[in-house]
Write a structure and sequence with these properties.
4-stranded antiparallel beta sheet, elongated, 696 residues, 7% strand, alpha+beta, single chain
């Protein structure tokens, strides 16, 4: 007995310190790679475009032409009352200075507007090539030279300037996004734990997980070419802190319970891991599987987000199931101060909000189910009020210089295009292609440019404004008429983004639903319960988009909806929503296996997990809500829809609808598993016959 006690004591000391030492080694190894993630982050158009689209091929071939990728800009001079001779002289002097300082592809020629208020100079250079930093430096140098004053406004727009403004926004996200997320999570954990120390532990562990995820993401980029963009790395950070804190809440809650029942923290943590570990593993596996379905997308930005999101979830899982337990064990019970769970004590009895909610759902389950379904369906109708497709100039919450230039050009040149459409054609057919382009309806002008590697570049100006219905029709006509050629440029990229997102929805959505459903069937040993959970999260997704339709235009003033919003919000809400469903249904199944009747099992599961799920939902919703403070419309829309969806899922669907459906279906919710069948009452033993004297 003494040797056994000594062995146990050594294990309780060696295991935590050993795991902690292993994590230190991992972080030392990961450190040089994590710091390099920002170096491989790319936010060029080709990093977001569809893999096989015309516009993607144009961007790739342009990289191989003499001089490499072209940075195209438009310098816009404008005066409301009309440009003066001095204004034109200033413009010519500044453009000459720009041409003298940089290697331009052609001498810039001024194009005046019909009303005389505006003069635009297209400026293009191959100096930066594919180097984003060099491109940004060129744009800033042009802006430093092109300056107005005394009523003359000077703006630098065009594809290159717009890319620079977008890149600066994405590069500025990392710090504010991380700090804001940490602050929001810290505040919520302080409120939830009501302890001045405990909140620091899961938050610090989440920070370690985020650092590890950056190193792994860099490794995926170097080993497999996984694209890393500002959007995908930002979402990865959100998932690490959101999902990681959720897992921490579940584990700490179970650990607190076990500390009242078990004397030693090491043994209490072991029991806690056995109790909630399977649910955490299953839920994280479901989220990872859902995110990996994005690999089936053709859109580069969506396909790259799948692996990075999965890395974030799995790094959070690893940290919360290994590092967090050992840190809590080493700190002992005192980390819960002032609400320390004493061995043998019982928690203070308090009226449970979720018990009251469960009771109301249990009394009239069908009425609650129908009412909740009607509410979600009504909210989903708001999707019909979503604004149209988001244009480039409407993708910023504030108005950078490039967007201001686009708006000035649209007002001053309504009769012609101001943004080039690029055609890449085989060099041996360049003359015939040029003639065909000029003969196409809606084309204002077309000029041949560089030739190299068997291809010729042709710059086309449409008669319609950029991203208008007329220009879209012209681009589609060019693609229909020009066999063997590729049509690209900023407007063509937006068309391809819209079409590819529609295609990806048709492919990725069924894959996500099927993969999540199969995991739930394997976990819950049922078909009805998984179908119930999947139907619930799909309803939440529709309602969340509907709420977005009610506020994006009328409240936020957004002029459009990001084409990828539907797909990305669906993947995240289904994966994360099912995550909470697993917590609830897993506990319900556990109660049923322990002999509880169906109604009691459902209400007990809600009462015991409701508080944790609510806390986790609040944290996850708050982390995604951080995106609404970012300066990109697509991030604001995505963060808003996911945050609203998580709250709906937490406080309406899990609390009322899933519980009421389980109460109404009773054992049928576990069909066709063994739990769906009525338990067979044990047959009492047969009493032996009494032998009487008469029988003898």
């Amino acid at each position: 007995m003494g040797a056994a006690r000594t062995s146990d004591r050594r294990r309780r000391i060696a295991v935590p310190w050993g795991v902690l030492g292993l994590w230190i080694v991992v972080l030392v190894i990961a450190s040089p790679f994590a710091s390099k993630l920002a170096d491989v982050q790319r936010d060029r158009a080709v990093d977001y475009l569809p893999a096989g689209a015309d516009s993607t091929q144009v961007a790739r071939i342009q990289d191989r032409l003499p001089g490499g990728e072209t940075t195209q800009m438009v310098v816009v001079y404008h005066r409301d009352g009309g440009l003066t001779a001095a204004d034109r002289a200033t413009a010519e002097e500044q453009i000459a200075e720009i041409a003298g300082a940089h290697r331009l592809t052609a001498d810039p020629a001024g194009i005046p507007s019909k009303d005389g208020t505006t003069l635009m100079y297209p400026v293009a250079s191959n100096e930066p090539g594919t180097d984003e930093d060099a491109r940004d430096e060129l744009v800033h140098e042009v802006r430093d030279v092109a300056r107005g004053g005394d009523g003359l406004s000077v703006e630098v727009g065009g594809e290159g300037a717009l890319a620079t403004d977008a890149s600066e926004v994405y590069n500025s996200l990392d710090g504010p996004l991380l700090y804001t997320t940490v602050a929001v999570v810290a505040l919520l954990l302080i409120v939830i734990y009501r302890s001045p120390f405990l909140w620091l532990v899961p938050l610090a562990v989440a920070g370690v997980a985020n650092y590890l995820s950056m190193a792994v993401a860099y490794g995926l980029n170097q080993g497999f070419g996984t694209s890393v963009s500002g959007q995908s790395s930002g979402i990865m950070t959100i998932l690490v802190f959101g999902a990681g804190t959720d897992y921490a809440l579940l584990l700490v809650s179970r650990y607190r319970e076990e500390l009242r029942r078990v004397e030693r923290p090491y043994d209490a943590m072991t029991a806690a891991l056995r109790g909630c570990g399977p649910a955490v593993l299953a839920s994280s596996g479901t989220v990872a599987a859902g995110l990996l379905c994005l690999l089936a997308a053709d859109l580069n930005s969506s396909r790259g987000m799948g692996p990075l999101g999965t890395v974030g979830v799995l790094c959070a899982l690893l940290a919360m199931l290994t590092l967090l337990p050992v840190v809590l064990v080493l700190l002992g019970r005192r980390v819960f101060w002032p609400l320390i769970p004493r061995y043998g004590s019982t928690p203070k009895a308090r009226r449970s909000l979720f018990a009251a909610m469960g009771s109301s759902a249990g009394r009239r389950p069908v009425a609650v189910l129908l009412g909740g379904g009607l509410l979600l369906g009504t909210l989903a109708l708001g999707m019909f009020n979503l604004p149209g497709d988001l244009k480039q100039e409407d993708s910023f919450t504030s108005r950078p210089d490039a967007v201001a230039a686009l708006q000035t050009l649209a007002a001053a040149y309504p009769e012609r295009g101001t943004q080039a459409v690029t055609v890449i054609t085989p060099a041996d057919r360049a003359d015939a292609t040029l003639a065909e382009i000029r003969d196409t309806r809606g084309v204002d002008s077309a000029e041949a440019g560089r030739t190299g590697d068997g291809w010729t570049e042709i710059s086309v100006l449409a008669t319609s404004a950029p991203q208008s219905a007329g220009e879209t029709a012209t681009i589609e006509d060019l693609r229909d008429r020009l066999d063997g050629s590729y049509v690209g440029g900023p407007s063509a990229e937006q068309i391809d983004l819209k079409d590819t997102n529609a295609r990806d929805r048709l492919i990725v959505v069924p894959i996500v639903l099927l993969s999540v459903l199969l995991i739930l069937v394997a976990l819950l040993r049922s078909l009805v319960a998984p179908l119930l959970l999947v139907a619930a999260v799909v309803a939440v997704w529709g309602a969340s988009l509907g709420i977005g339709g009610l506020v994006f235009g009328p409240v936020f003033g957004f002029e459009g909806t990001d084409p990828g919003l539907g797909l990305l919000s669906f993947v995240f809400l289904v994966a994360l929503g099912v995550d909470y469903g697993i917590f609830l249904m897993h506990r319900m199944r556990e109660e049923s296996l322990n002999g509880a009747e169906p109604v009691a099992a459902a209400l007990t599961a809600l009462r015991t997990t409701g508080g944790v799920i609510a806390s986790a939902g609040l944290v996850l919703a708050a982390t995604f809500a951080v995106l609404t403070s970012m300066p990109m419309v697509q991030l604001v829309e995505l963060g808003f829809v996911i945050a609203v969806g998580v709250l709906l899922d937490t406080f309406l669907v899990r609390t009322y609808l899933v519980t009421s459906a389980s109460v109404a279906l009773r054992r049928k919710v576990w069909w066709p598993g063994a739990l769906s069948r009525e338990p067979v009452a044990p047959v009492p033993p047969k009493e032996p016959e009494r032998v009487t004297a008469d029988a003898h």
